[in-house]
User: What shape does this take?
Amino acid sequence: MKKNICKKIMAALAALSLGAFCHLSKAQSDEPIPSPSATFTVDIKIYAFVSGQTANTSTGILTYQGKQYPFTIGGIGLGKNQIGASHLVGSGVVYNLNNLDDFEGSYDQISGGIMAAGHAKLISKKNVGIHLIGSTNGPVIISPGGVVIKFSK
Amino acid sequence: MTSLSKALYTVSAATVFAFSSLAIAQEIPARVGVVAVEKLGAIPAAKKDVDSADIAKQLANPIANMISLPLQYEFNRGLGKNQSGSEPNLLFQPVAPFNLGGGDTFILRPIIAGVREVSVQGSNGQPYSGYGIASVTIESFYAPNTNSSWIWGIGPYAQSPSGNSGHFGSQQTGAGVTAVVLNRDGPWTYGVLGFQSWNVGGNPTFGTQNNLYGQPFISYTTANGLNYSASMEAQYNYDAHRTSNPLYVGVSKVLIFDGVPLSIGVGPMYYVSNTPGGPSGWGARATATLVILE
Assistant: This one.
């Protein structure tokens, strides 16, 4: 008798947990892909002099809710001990941008890589996501501290 | 316990574990932005897979993407027989790199020197003032891909005679070999550039082109972009048995003008030794280097 009760409890528990597992799995797979909040284009030139000095000139245009906002990107270099210059031209989309001001800030790369894959996915501390697709004629390395986006004055 | 019971226990344990894992995962605040960029698939990636050959190609030679146009103003004094003359000069020394493939580079560096002499007493005792093109020098380097922070290059060297007057240097043509080696070590850059030149013809009255030149240099770049540098530019003339040896220390900074980087530098120099009639004592130098991205 005791064994039968135990079996029934185990069977009920198994059924319950299986159902919960399936429900959660389905919920996860059905999570919709958010639609882009904005789009942008960038043109970045990176210089590393023999002396060790570096320079980065960037122009970006964010298109958000039908309006365009110029911005700059910092934190991109040629890599350690490189000398020369690179030119990166790219475009992309922005996700989860609910407030224009949230676009400014520091972004960390979470996957991809401009050189390795031709694109990079970045996320800011304000949960704004960026997918940048671009091409370059030389090395382009996102610094360990991430890139910093600021609106141009 | 029956086999059915064992199976139920296993399923229960597995699903409870899975449920618990998902529940823990759910407890971590979901980052909507992360989910968005991780899930996005509407935009095709430019290249889906890592192409190591392409990366190597991109890394191979960024030098070849950049042409620099340095313009250097230098003020020297203590010239002439009585060492009372002065000599402002302007050096235009563009650096044009060419990609040879595989990361190798050929660097062409012509140097055009315009000189103004003010009250420089000649060997005849008469002071001279005037200006002209002193010489055209061509330095060139074949720089192989070293795959390290050390870079070296070697190539032919040539210098034209400096006009008919003899006031602006040797009237001989020089030819030889030049070489450079440098290392980038964090904020430090150091190395040496040199050449050996031989006379290949011309009038030796105003000096010869039998020279040995050595320029050790070192620089340090701070986090805020300031660069401090020091160099010695020793040139020994085999015929005069004398060395002209100015020491230079300077500071420079890269400024961005309308999206174009420009390095501005300035500093004093001091001749610890000089050739007869050549510059001596204190001088000064200012440089402006414009960079063009190909």
Chain A has two domains: 1-31, 38-151.
